[in-house]
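Limitations
The structure tokens in this dataset are predictions for the assembled complex, not deposited experimental models. Users should treat interface geometry with appropriate caution, especially where small molecules or nucleic acid strands are included. An illustrative entry is reproduced here so readers can see what is and is not provided.
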Amino acid sequence: MFELTHLNYATIILDVSAIILAYGMLRQTRIMRKSRLESDSLFFGMLILMVVMALSDIVGYLTENRPGETIINLQIISMTVFYLAFTVLSMSWFDYCTFRFKDKGRVKKIGMRPAFLPGVLTFGLVFLNQFTGIIFSVDEMGGYHREFLFIPMYVVIVAYLATGFFYIAKYRTSDKKTLIPMWLYAMPIIVSTVITFVAGEVSMAALGTAITIAFTHLGTMNEVADLSMKESVQ
Amino acid sequence: MFIDEIHVTFYADIAAAILSLGVYVLCSRGIIKDAFLGGVFRLLLIMDCFLAVVDAATYARKYHEFPGAYPIALGLQTLLELVLNFIIFLWLVYVNYKVYHSRDSIKRKLIKNMIPLFILMAIDIINVFTGILFYYDEHVMYHTTWFTIPYYLIRYFYFFSCVIQISVHKRKGRDLKFFEIWAFIIPVLAGGLITNLTAYSTTALGFAVALFNVYAGIINEQSFMDSRTGFFNRYYLRYLRNDVDDEGFAPKSGMICRLEDPEDMTAFSELLSPLLPKKCEVVRFDEETVIMLAEISKKAAMQMMSEDVEAAVEKYNSENSGRPLSVTIDTVFKKKKETCKGFYDMFIRRIG
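Predicted assembly:
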């Protein structure tokens, strides 16, 4: 039977909460998914990636500090999947904000751009970490350690997230009723990223991301509700 | 210095406060049309935020002994229980209004709904003087008594009475679109069980996730539902077109109902609702038109349905001779080689 520390429980509870939140959003957005718009595809992709992050995070914490080759390999794989998903999610967030806020849907196709180069590079380095241990490593007792490329990886991820927030901040319409304040977008992910980075033993990354995505979705739905009220018969 | 287990509660409460506060800011922008429902919902969010703060304070005090620790601990824990019971009461008021859309209904059932609340709150107050439910020892450590079992049973039963309300409503053939009771219950139940069975407190987080789900449902309802009839609104048609195909919802026939007097729309919708087939989409197209798309391929079946609607209107008119309904019904059928999307487009053009 696994022995878990209190902080392992913390991470598991927070990650499960993130998954429940994501499931709630997926259920509530059934109708939106019928539209199959480009930005909606990105949004749902982000939800799925967030669930992958939460699940791999749970596995990572369950296997931490446990010796044994199989367990250690499982930990390495789960944390690799976590950081891969986080990298792709940050790029998707940047793409989503570019499409929805900066270009206001004018761009026909979302896809690879030069701006994605740092993200693609980071993705490659995370993948190669399994063989090189340059971002994180796991010792023979199952202990997790951050290596010299850990901070640069986080800088790339945060840069994509921050640029997306910057586009949201610049987005202005005449109808401020439906716009949500900037701090509502930024606070969950900033608080959770700081706690994860500083505390180390507790991961709030998945839940913070889930809450930010939740607020973004609700902001979009507020605009849809406002438009619907104007267009529909009363 | 924090003990590790307190971290769990702290992070959960931080997340709960952020989520509740965020949803509060979102729904304070006048998006919720119904003022009473919006008011109750915002109060639920504020109370959940308050619950998170009190909960965090309770856990912050844990393991610390200082002058005044005992009354502070007792006061905080009592406040926690009172707030939680009040949140459950507010939720029941919300569900009641959601089901009946009537403040009179709430007033009629208020005393009945408040009896368990009074019992629970009375126990909380009595506990301050007697320690019947929980108490603190000489080291200001929290202990529960056997009485917490019936207390929690009353609380859980009180909470689950909302499911009974919804079930009764659904048995009368009425469906609440976009209001999924389990989207609220599951997170709250998960948070409550973790709190009751472990050393961690996740109640506030459970409520926060649940309230987020409810708000998403409210916004969906306001975006896509017509408040007068309970059918989908015209804005929903944007999404309906993408839904019709040969693998998903495959309409084979449709009905267009045009009212002579738009004021009769509410009465007509109440006549039509019980007659609708299981797999259909009904939209209030404009002030006087309601359309229905169904997977009924047999002309005889559709004809029968059309006759049922006419019979219901006739019956209504005989009972309300002072204000009779006048409806024209037109049925449309998909051609054999026509695709579902082609039929949909033709149907919409036919409405005019």
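Some entries come with short summary sentences. For this one: The two ends of chain A are 60 Å apart (CA to CA).
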